[in-house]
Amino acid sequence: PEVNTYNSTVYSIVPQKQGNKAFSFEILQKYFDLDTTENIAPLKLRGTVYPFEGTLMSIQVPYSSNYARDIFINYLPNGAKFQEISFVDVYNGKYDPNLVKDKIILIGSTATALYDKFHTPRGIQDGIFVHANMINTVLNQKYIVEVERWKELVMLFALTFLLVLFTLYAKNRVFQFLFLLVGFIVLFGAEIGYFSLFQRLFTLPVQLMLIVMLTTIFVTGYKYIYEESGKRALKGALSQYLSEELVVNILDKFEEVKLDGKRMNITSFFSDIAGFTSISENMEPEELVHFLSIYLKEVSDIIMHNKGFINKYEGDAVMALWGAFGGDEKEQAILACRAALVQQKKIQEINEEFKKNHGFEISVRMGINKGVAVVGNIGSMGKKIEYTALGDSVNTASRFEGINKLYGTLICVGESVMEEAKEHFVFRKLDSIQVKGKEKPVFIYELIGEIGEISSEKQEIIREFEKALSLYVMGNIAQGEKIFKKLSEQFSDAPSLTFVERCEKLIEDGVPEGWQGVYRATEK
Length: 524
Description:
This protein is an alpha+beta fold. The protein has 15 helices and 21 strands.
């Protein structure tokens, strides 16, 4: 027979070639008792068919597509089969004649040695059954044809557009991959369903591959042009406030970063130059700008090096955050404390330059606290928006910076910071205070330095101070005062001097009823 094969798979038959008909079509001609003349229409015309033309009837068998000269075979489904009768049974008369009455009978061999077996969409079949399926297709007029090209193109671009749309709005690459996978499965299922209903084929697998390929090209192109350019711009902007390592980490998790406000556990840092107002009044504007540029550059580099986010500058004041863009929560307090200590060392170094060029030295107070805050874009849409943090824990960190003035300290931290960083740094318990506007008192601590870097003298001062503080809280004011006074006079310990003054006033006025050792701060 004249058959088209693809990798030895018979999926269609050419009914007539060079004047010779295929076996199955010769049988059909005899069955219908018709003359056949192939309608060779120009290939540019649609709807070309192979006709059986006769005086009593006319049958038109559609070609597989508008541009082809073969006819698809609609094979019987798995499990269904044609009636088979052995030649031996026919010879011996052992068959029911009603089985063959008014039927088309094909005589052929199924012997393996004849090499008349073919791969088909329904498995390996003998050549005689290939023709039987072709005849059955025509008799039942269940033809398979390809969908018109224009319909395929419309569907192709429509589905590509929808798939691109869904994929672009996916939150991350995992969802994008899932959309592509689900889209592929849906398309495959839709084509099978369409074929089952209308016996029309799409150009599988080219069409599916084309949709996925076009979607990938569109999505990749969009992300490169839009998102990647946005990331580059964002990287440039963030590099002014964050370390290179943190910027890369943020951009790697770009889809997970939310800028619309989110409750997060963060560590807040505030710093301020003591007596800056007096300093600025004695400097020319250009000189002041130069001074601040040097100072802010040095402290900013240290903060960013320790993975901090510089949230804002307000004159000489600096606000920084740890954890505003995620990261290891357990490291926040440690990094913030280390950044504060390194800044204090750097300030001592640059004070020599300030003394030489400007005639003064600076002292910088710092406050650190950790807690829950709302982090995100705050401001007026279309006007001014700032990525910052709001919450009680942030306000408390700012208060800690100012509280340093009461004790003559440089770095004051909250209890949450001390608890998380105490294995790395030495702290001194300063006091239990009730800040202005708050009902509940909080413990405050002075950050002294890294463990292993504190002198034995300083360690002795800390032990004696905390011993005196314990007496003070229990109401043994006089005993506590003796220790505070000794530390103040012998070591010029500023916090001890503060408590000496308090003890003297308490001794003079008397200890209030219900004394718990809590100091009520009247200033922010």
